[in-house]
Amino acid sequence: MTQKITVIRGDGIGPEIMDATLYVLDKLNVGLEYEDADAGLVALEKHGDLMPASTLESIARNKVALKSPLTTPVGGGFTSINVSLRRHFDLYANVRPAHTFPNTKSRFDNVNLVTVRENTEGAYLAEGQEVSADGETAFSGTRITRKGSERIVRYAFELARSTGRKKVTAVHKANIIKSTSGLFLAVAREVAANYPDIEFQEMIVDNTCMQLVMRPEQFDVIVTTNLFGDIISDLCAGLVGGLGLAPGANIGENAAIFEAVHGTAPDIAGQGKANPCALLLAAAQMLDHIGQPENAERLRKAIVATLEAKDSLTGDLGGNGNTMGFAQAIASRL
What we know:
Blueprint: E1 3-8, H1 14-28, E2 32-37, H2 41-47, H3 53-62, E3 64-67, H4 81-88, E4 93-99, E5 112-118, E6 122-131, E7 138-143, H5 146-163, E8 167-172, H6 180-192, E9 199-204, H7 205-214, E10 221-224, H8 226-239, E11 247-251, E12 256-260, H9 277-289, H10 293-309, H11 323-331
Parallel strand pairs: 1-2, 1-3, 3-12, 5-10, 8-9, 8-10
Antiparallel strand pairs: 4-5, 4-11, 6-7, 11-12
Helix pairs in contact: 1-9, 1-11, 5-6, 7-8, 9-10, 10-11
């Protein structure tokens, strides 16, 4: 039985790492059929729209998408397409695993945690953004809801229970931001009471960041609001060797998008230098999601074995290999 997924090749190095990832998935023989869809600068050039209606229709129809990085301007320009996709499909759970891999630049050998980030509200909603006429004052509102907090915390506990993890840490700033962060923490405590089999811990965000760089092994599942989750998940990627090893899943009730969370790296685009591991690990998350955990584990083990062998590694991992050569080395170990 085949399953069709939407494939978004993205900008910059996106097409290269997508080609490498699809090569490995084809060798894995998991019964996937690909429906290409455009987004980002490529879509703007071809369709005059950063996010064409046909792409949204494809994701809605297939319910699963694999996505390479898309260009997001800093400080101005168009709204982040990633944020727009999350809101459009109500992809409320951003799931970012961080796991130590061999022969990387990681400073730790014992990291194995997951950050579960609320993906649709909080600071990223940025209601009422405005800058005063004189350019001296800027304002942006933040909104947290009981519904949004409850479903993300429940997702974290269900994830912990279904994957055999033992602890959930709710990260907040309720000591200072008593309204929005306070509501999130209060709801987290209420939800935690329904999961007596899972240890519950609450931790202020600044202390969390310190603890992560001192003793990351103490964490299992971290659940938090949008902005804090964005920062913490990248910090966790730094613990295990960088964003080249950081996958991400965006999960909603009716759709899911799996992605490499790093940028488009236009400075090396088209040169075969890009590390495809983040997108390959996102593909493993996708296989878990569609009910193929055995194949997801086969893929992860092949990546680990290739890293252990230092076979065709890309430059960021200390090797001299290229993108497709690295993918071929991984495929040979499936």
